[in-house]
Amino acid sequence: MNFLVGLGIWGLLLGVLIEAVSLPFPAALFILIYGYILQPSPLEIILYSLAVSVFYVMVSFIPYWLSIKYETDIRRKLSKKKQQKFDRWTEKYGDWTITLGRILGMGYIAYLGGFCSIKPARYGMLTFLGVLPVSITMFYLGSIGNLAALKEGFNNVQWVINGLLLTTTVSYVLFKLLKRKPALAKVKQKDNR
């Protein structure tokens, strides 16, 4: 914590920068911690949130432009399933997928903006609208909160998410193994004949 205090506002911006370039990093947690460190007034919460949101938008144009420039290369590396998921989200929610993705903390949503040829101004606005409410909420919770209680809450949520991921992974592997077993039995039957 002392390290973050020493970094000041630059630490906050560094955390936001890392997530905005689509690296898996919890910028919302950084904002929460800096809400605790800075203890902003209600007006400062709004001002910090606006500044963080504008900075996030500016930095998020890096993966946006990369997705336009290298779309074919990136699409080749994406599985068909992920591409279809992107397409379904866009068909279902339109451009607002960008905002929803930002609220849910999906940094890689910037690539969707580039793939779907969303105009830069619209992409920036949708990103801003997704990041701003999260920033306000996290600065507010950090400013009022007992950081230990908030951290414990995040840890509990993380345990639940990890438990769900583990359960899903184990279920998937078991499903694949059980699905494969009858196919192997048929092959063995043919070999015995």
TrEMBL record:
<feature type="transmembrane region" description="Helical">
    <location>
        <begin position="157"/>
        <end position="178"/>
    </location>
</feature>
<dbReference type="InterPro" id="IPR032816">
    <property type="entry name" value="VTT_dom"/>
</dbReference>
<dbReference type="GO" id="GO:0005886">
    <property type="term" value="C:plasma membrane"/>
</dbReference>
<dbReference type="InterPro" id="IPR051311">
    <property type="entry name" value="DedA_domain"/>
</dbReference>
<protein>
    <submittedName>
        <fullName>VTT domain-containing protein</fullName>
    </submittedName>
</protein>
<feature type="transmembrane region" description="Helical">
    <location>
        <begin position="123"/>
        <end position="145"/>
    </location>
</feature>
<dbReference type="Pfam" id="PF09335">
    <property type="entry name" value="VTT_dom"/>
</dbReference>
<comment type="similarity">
    <text>Belongs to the DedA family.</text>
</comment>
<keyword id="KW-0812">Transmembrane</keyword>
<keyword id="KW-1003">Cell membrane</keyword>
<feature type="transmembrane region" description="Helical">
    <location>
        <begin position="45"/>
        <end position="66"/>
    </location>
</feature>
<feature type="transmembrane region" description="Helical">
    <location>
        <begin position="96"/>
        <end position="116"/>
    </location>
</feature>
<feature type="domain" description="VTT">
    <location>
        <begin position="27"/>
        <end position="143"/>
    </location>
</feature>
<keyword id="KW-0472">Membrane</keyword>
<keyword id="KW-1133">Transmembrane helix</keyword>
<feature type="transmembrane region" description="Helical">
    <location>
        <begin position="12"/>
        <end position="38"/>
    </location>
</feature>
